[in-house]
Design a protein that fits this description.
Layout lengths: L1 E5 L8 H13 L4 E6 L1 H10 L9 E5 L21 H10 L5 E4 L3 H12 L9 E6 L5 E4 L9 H17 L7 E5 L10 H12 L4 E6 L11 E3 L2 H26 L3 H20 L7 E5 L4 E5 L5 H16 L2 H9 L5 H6 L2
Parallel strand pairs: 1-2, 1-4, 2-3, 4-11, 6-9, 7-8, 7-9
Antiparallel strand pairs: 5-6, 5-10, 10-11
Helix pairs in contact: 1-9, 3-4, 5-6, 5-10, 7-8
């Protein structure tokens, strides 16, 4: 197995990306790693940190270009196709690695993955799948890739999400919910109402009906399907509420000398809570529906979060998530065709 890593993309690149990727390479000596980026910069970081680059499982792939957060999505296949992201996706498509991890521009990564790596034959759209840190970890699909989707695509997303939760999160028979403004089956737009009917009729998913936003934190479902517009709002609201809650609790416990004494007694539990609400624990979001494994790490990832994103990539390859998605979502594929998607 070889993991391709974009060292140059992300808010804290290249330092934090290098540190996280290097830790992953040290932890997994049986797995090959390709660090893609400006070789001179990578070597300077390694030298400054006394981190030797002669690991037997480590390869440096030089490129000087970088996709910034301001670049247009299609720049990865046009004027910046030789960037660290563009080159990584090209290597993945050519079979020079089994997975690609990047903390870069989400739009560029999704567009490049679709046009360079391409989707599994028969899948209409790939989607960003993000694990939300609720009472039961909930996979949100789509969390931002597709503003509008057809009713049939909701069903494909439900199947892809179910495979991921089963293979990676070890959830038996994952419960699938449809994001909506009410529990009644007729609620929502025409597209969502049609999607409800198709999900209800699908025999290979465990559909539990509509799920309102207020029910999500209490473990209403294991997979939440929606369009990327609504999903991204849910994702950003969840991240904002988590940060707000932790901040308010900190204010409460540092308000005066008495509360500061109380804080000493609950400090360990508060740390556990903060950790459970952190996106860093999951590291990144897979782009499900592609013919190869692509993981989108959070743009603000530090070394810890980026290392966890790489762990996700390894887990997806080990558990043949892409292959299992191909088998379930597109059953008409031959065994040979499905195997090529793994």
């Amino acid at each position: 197995m070889r993991i391709l890593v974009d060292i140059m993309s992300g808010d804290k690149a290249p330092l934090e990306m290098f540190l996280g990727a290097y830790q992953a390479a040290e932890e997994n000596p049986s797995i090959a790693f390709s660090f893609i980026g400006n070789e001179a910069i990578i070597r300077a970081i390694a030298e400054a940190r006394a981190m030797p680059l002669d690991l037997p499982n480590l390869q440096l792939v030089h490129t000087e270009g970088t996709i910034t957060m301001e670049d247009a999505p299609l720049s990865v296949v046009r004027e910046k196709k030789d960037s660290s992201m563009g080159l990584g996706l090209k290597m993945l498509a050519e079979g020079k690695g089994e997975a690609f991890v990047s903390a870069g521009n989400t739009g560029a990564l999704h567009a490049g993955s679709t046009l360079i790596v391409r989707r599994i034959k028969g899948i209409a759209k790939s989607a960003i799948a993000t694990v939300l840190p609720y009472q039961n970890p909930t996979l949100l699909i789509d969390s931002g890739a597709n503003v509008e989707i057809s009713p049939e695509t909701y069903v494909q997303f439900a199947k892809m999400g179910s495979v991921y939760m089963n293979r990676i999160m070890k959830v038996e028979n994952p419960r699938v919910g449809l994001l909506n403004i009410g529990a009644e089956r007729h609620k929502g737009t025409k597209t969502v109402a049609e999607a409800y009917q198709l999900l209800e009729q699908a025999e290979d998913i465990n559909f539990v009906g509509n799920v309102e936003g207020k029910e999500l934190p209490n473990g209403a479902c294991d997979v939440l399907v929606c369009d990327g517009f609504s999903g991204n709002i849910v994702l950003k609201l969840t991240e904002g509420c988590a940060a707000f809650l932790v901040g308010k609790l900190t204010d409460v416990f540092t308000a005066n000398p008495l509360t500061k004494v109380s804080y000493l007694g609950v400090k360990p539990e508060l740390k556990k809570m903060k950790k459970s609400l952190s996106a860093s624990e999951y590291g990144g979001a897979p782009l499900l529906g592609l013919s190869r494994t692509v993981i989108k790490a959070h743009g603000s990832s530090d070394a810890y979060a980026f290392r966890n994103a790489i762990r996700q990539a390894i887990g997806c390859v080990d558990n043949k998530v892409t292959y299992e998605i191909a088998k379930l979502v597109v059953p008409e594929l031959t065994a040979k065709e499905a195997e090529t998607q793994a």
